[in-house]
Amino acid sequence: MEMEGKTKIAFIAIVVVAMVAAGGVGVSVLVGNDNGSEERPTYNAEVNVKIDDEYKSFNGSGKTVKEILESALGEDVKVGANGNVASYKEQKNDSSHSWVVFRFQTPNGWVNATDDNLVEGATLALEFSEKITENGKVSYSKPTLAVTKTVWFFIQIPALDDIKDCVDSGSFKVREDSNGNPLKSVEDCYNELKDWTVSAGLSSNDLRTGFWIKGTGSYMNEALANGLHETFFKDDAMTVEDDGVTIDYCINGEVMHSSLKKSDLYGWFVDFLGWGDTQLNNGDWTYWSQYTYNPNAKTLDDGRQWEYDQWALGFYDMDLYKYVALVLQTTAQKDGGEIDVDITIPTPSTIPEELKA
Predict the structure, then answer these.
(1) φ and ψ at residue 223, rounded to 5 degrees
(2) Which of 150, 188, 218, 257 is most buried (CB neighbours < 10 A)?
(3) Torsion angles phi and psi, residue 67, rounded to 5
(4) Tell me, what DSSP letter sits at residue 178?
(5) pTM higher than 0.90, yes or no?
(6) Does domain 37-140 have CATH number 3.40.50.720?
(7) Domain ranges of the chain
(8) b/e string for 337-351 if b means 16 or more Cβ within 10 A?
């Protein structure tokens, strides 16, 4: 596969500000619902505790953090009515340490676990955390346990021939950054896209109808890269390059997926399978549109539950958003300026059985 080296994009075609609250860490397990636990659903969760410098995992269930801890750890854990953990295996809080309950929540990592941020399948950690005081503010050391989550991605290029026709006819604008500096050409974007799909063994019909992959990672973009690598390029080396601006996932040194690391655009696609955001002369954009399946949907077989993403991909909580669709398409503006993003996407019920395990 012949491709040019990675291209850094300083210009973002569509500005999206994604506001994700980073949970603060405190000693208490805060109960945020005055209606009581009887109105909450019952959640299954994994509880991790460091024992002899190694984390051991226990399964628990309950409507609150307190109930889950007691279900998983039994009489070894003492949790007060206010949610504070007093001791574990008779190890009590002291002047420099406290038992703190954390939840792993992408993209923030380990945050304070509360009744209000519990979800089905959550990963919790009970940590005997060191008290840290800086500038009069108290915080607690976080778990060092590495956690990955699984997500299913549907990928589709429904009109690759139309994109080629636009490239050949010069219908795309010259790609430039915000300072007018040239970026990778549209021709190179298309050629790299073709190279990647051919190397993956994908036919024109595969691209037109789309396909599912499964990936694991500590945040969405990492899981996407993992899914592509494991599905199509398992025999090739994948490396990760992080220069503080972008995170690049490379196969044999060539950038397969590049995304922004900026806090307000975390996971924004710079380049995916060779293609970056590109504008047509008429003002429309050809880009990787992203959709997530409603985590509150009652079924996995309702196409109306796909929602067009308003955040950069990296911001999504992987415990909630387990199904993502990526569609390379041109979105036109409707009358009134609204962007037409309404398309038919197969539901998660169509995921092949071999990917569900």
Answers:
(1) -65, -40
(2) 257
(3) -65, -40
(4) T
(5) no
(6) no
(7) 37-140, 149-356
(8) eeeebebebbbbeeb
